[in-house]
Amino acid sequence: MIKSALYYREKLNLSIIPIIPGDKKPLVKWEKYQTELPTIDEVKAWWTETPNANIGIVTGKINNLVVVDFDKHKPEYSEEIALEYFPESILTPTAKTPNGGLHMYFQNPNEEMTNNASVLPAIDLRANGGYVVAPPSINGNGRQYEWVDGLKITELSFSVLPTAYIKYVFKKACSFVNNINNTNISNSNAKKTPLFQHGRRDQDLFHLANHLTKSKMPEEEIYQYLEFIAQSCNPPYPEKDIPIKIQSALKRTEKVEKNISHEIREFVLSTNGYFLSTDVYNCLLLSTRNEKKLCSKVLTDLTKERIIERIGTKNGSFRLIGDEAPDIDIYAPKKEFLKLEFPLDLHHYFKAMPKNIIIIAGTQDAGKTAFLLRFVAMNMNRGMAIRYQTSEMGTFELQDRLAMFEDIPKEDWEKVNFKENSSNFQDYILPDGINVIDYLEITNNFFLVAEELKKIFDKLNTGVAIIGLQKDFKSELGRGGTFSLEKPRLYVSLTSNPPEGGIAKIVKCKNWVDKRINPNGRECNFKIRSGNEIRQVTKWDYYKKLPKTKD
Q: From 17's CA, which of 137, 302, 424, 520 has a CA 20 to 30 Å away?
């Protein structure tokens, strides 16, 4: 994120601000950045303090920039109205928002232009006094803002805001009257230029050609329509330029359909189990008749390709066909277990193997982070890269925690790659390294823990992942319950038990060190000192709770 922020500021000379992750509110008092650029040092400090902060680009005079926000997910949004003011022939930097909308970036037509919300249905304007969340920012659901192919801010200069839209905004807002692009705009008598007249012939003919190509009209018939209209233009439109308009519209339609087809395929390939065609409509915001017909065609093609299959008797119900399961070579050379060490001498009972997942489920203040950091300290010199993803510690808190490890020289921690992250942990997995996740955040729908663990498991090759989970005092399993128990080869439960310390229990253990000693169900008492030293108080054994007496 910091690389992108510095690119916007240094290379493109834009005024930017940090945005709260998963929110749209600024992390700083940002009013002054409407009139002055942040310094490079300020940008570095913001994203060093909060590495996963989103990026906001300030709109208005400071950046000579306005952004039109198309909220396509809203029921009042009309594609027809949008195309009337923003024809598809416009090429300007455009970003796709996580909810399926668009942000179109334009030159600022006037220094006094201010924000306007929904002057047109579900279409907002961000100008003076505003900002817009920019790629590669991520919303609260982990979905990303992305530049539309070929329309990145780094590849394309800003187009001028369409005159028809400026006139409409000025007329509705009644905030000021000015001369824009040598066009006199009056609040009282602003009139739209008639169709197919000089000044808008190109736009109108392309708009007509675009609608006809979308309706799948044969190319020769489209030519006849445009030829007839071209002769009626004032002045007449050159007949030799008509094929150019038709080819532009065909290419535009082809590009749009290709993008939608790609998105449908991506959706299908990311599904687990069964899905309905209506799920595709709702997720990808396919609303027009042509979009739904295209979706039906893509799903039919995927069925013929044996990527999906129809299920049941109900139309539009499908199942993703799994890849062919890999063969197991029973004669392959046996891989040695990874000689990893664990706090509480767990390595005397469990031997870690490549691609193992280990769960440390703990109650609040039971010592999960102390356990995980001590595990890292014990395995720094195993010849494996180590990555530690933390969802709850920022830079300064982490510095304080590491300083508690007086037996570990400060420079030794350079061997560990620390990342501040709270979602999509699988994206940062080292396939052949030691991965620590502190901790896997699931705030509701705890059954999704199994899905998250599978994503992490699928990214491992010869490496391992040791993952922290929150757990309730009443349960020995972490969030996700039995759903969290399937993938791990070692599952340890930590329960705080003040003032005695804590209780550790081996809930599940495969890969026994000694085949004669079953570790499952064994418990021990432990204490944590100085936030980093884990001292085992009792040996691993089976302890029976004494029945309560009346006294």
A: 424
In a domain, residue 52? The reply is: yes
The DSSP bridge partners found for residue 365 are none
Q: What is the pLDDT of residues 488-539, one digit of tens each?
A: 999 999 999 888 899 999 999 999 999 999 999 999 999 999 888 999 999 9
Q: Do residues 257 and 113 both lie within one domain?
A: no
Last residue within a domain, chosen from 132, 160, 192: 192
Six-digit token pair at 239? 């007949």
Tokens of 329: 């070579």
pLDDT in tens, 221-234: 878 877 788 777 77
Do residue 184 and residue 123 come from a single domain? yes
Please say whether the beta carbons of 18 and 28 come within 8 A: yes
Digit-coded pLDDT (tens) for 236-259:
878 788 788 778 777 766 766 777
Distance CA(360)–CA(375), nearest Å, equals 11
| Predicted local confidence at residue 436, as pLDDT | 97
CA 388/CA 206 separation, integer angstroms: 54
What letter would DSSP give residue 387? E
Q: Which of 179-183, 283-287, 305-309, 453-457 has the lowest mean pLDDT?
A: 179-183
The answer as to whether 286 is a domain residue is yes
**Residue 117, exposed/middle/buried by CB under 10 A (0-12, 13-18, 19+)?**
exposed
In terms of average pLDDT, the best of 159-163, 323-327, 361-365, 478-482 is 361-365
**Structural domain ending residue among the three candidates 136, 169, 192:** 192
CB pairs under 8 A, 24+ apart, for 480-486? 480/442, 480/446, 480/447, 480/448, 480/449, 480/450, 481/446, 483/446, 483/447, 483/449, 483/450, 484/359, 484/361, 484/449, 484/450, 484/453, 486/450, 486/453
Query: Which residues fall within 8 angstroms of residue 175, CB to CB, at 6 or more apart?
Result: 112, 114
Q: What angle do CA 197, 200, 205 make, to 5 degrees?
A: 90
| Highest mean predicted confidence (pLDDT) among 100-114, 375-389, 449-463 | 375-389
- Name the residue range of residue 489's domain: 343-536
Length of the chain: 551
Which CATH number goes with the domain that contains 415? 3.40.50.300
Number of Cβ within a 10 Å radius of residue 220: 8
> Does residue 106 share a domain with residue 84?
yes
How many angstroms from the chain centroid is the CA of residue 374?
Answer: 31
- Residue 166 or residue 363, greater confidence: 363
Q: Are residues 149 and 17 in the same domain?
A: yes
